Amino acid sequence: MDSSPASTTFRGIGCWLLLAAALPSAAQQAGVAQFENLATSPHVHCAFYRQYDIDPRTGDRLLVEGASNSLTHYQRQNGRLRSIDTRRAGARDALLIRGRKYLHFIERNAGFYVVTTIYACLERDARTDLCINYGAMNARHFDSRVLREPDAVFEDLQAHAEPGFCDHSFLHLREAAATPPGR
């Protein structure tokens, strides 16, 4: 084993290079991990807006709860993920794909894709610090890459997507209609 100062320096540089290469990957995984409560929730509710309202006092862009243009509900049932939305009749099957940076709910129908992308935590519970409200965008398009590269498609098309937010309910609770154990 060579213990010269030059070989020690090269080993140190090599360790730093390996660490630097691993950091972006770890940061991306941490980004997707913040959405895990939403990804595992049996019920996810989303509201989407065609445009932002403007706060007359500050000029900031706003999404006003209760004034959305569409609502979407995702529900897990018997191992399937289903989507119901106010823009069409009936429920549709959906996929949940965890990208490197974002979480995607994807519905497809004859080459047409309706994609809800979760991109940030907007609000945390003060007691538990768990995220309870998520930033979301809803896009409708024909780009089949969304099944292989959902993050890239989102970044390409987000300017044409509708802004909104999602939350989860009944997290880790049984549905009220379920029969209690032992009956």
3D structure, described in words:
The chain is α+β, with helices and mostly antiparallel strands. The protein has three helices and eleven strands. The chain has a nine-stranded antiparallel beta sheet with strand order 6-5-4-1-11-10-9-8-7. It has a two-stranded antiparallel ribbon with strand order 2-3. The longest helix is centred in the first third of the chain and has 29 residues, at 5-33. The chain is globular and about 45 Å long. The termini are far apart.
Quick structural overview:
The chain has three helices and eleven strands.
This entry's quaternary arrangement is single chain
> How are helices and strands ordered from N to C?
HHEEEEEEEEEEHE
Rg estimate, integer Å: 21 Å
- Helix count equals 3
Distance between the termini: 71 Å
Poorly predicted runs are 5-30, 171-177
Would you tell me the structural class of the helices and strands?
alpha+beta
Mean pLDDT across residues: 79
Helical fraction: 10-25%
Strands ordered across the widest β-sheet: 6-5-4-1-11-10-9-8-7
Number of strands: 11
Strand content: 35-45%
Biggest sheet details? 9 strands, antiparallel
Shape, principal axes of CA atoms: globular
Write the layout of secondary structure elements.
Elements: H1 5-33, H2 36-40, E1 43-48, E2 53-54, E3 61-62, E4 70-77, E5 80-85, E6 91-93, E7 95-98, E8 103-109, E9 112-124, E10 131-141, H3 150-157, E11 162-169
Antiparallel strand pairs: 1-4, 1-11, 2-3, 4-5, 5-6, 7-8, 8-9, 9-10, 10-11
Task: List its traits.
38% strand; 11 strands; 183 residues; two-stranded antiparallel sheet; alpha+beta
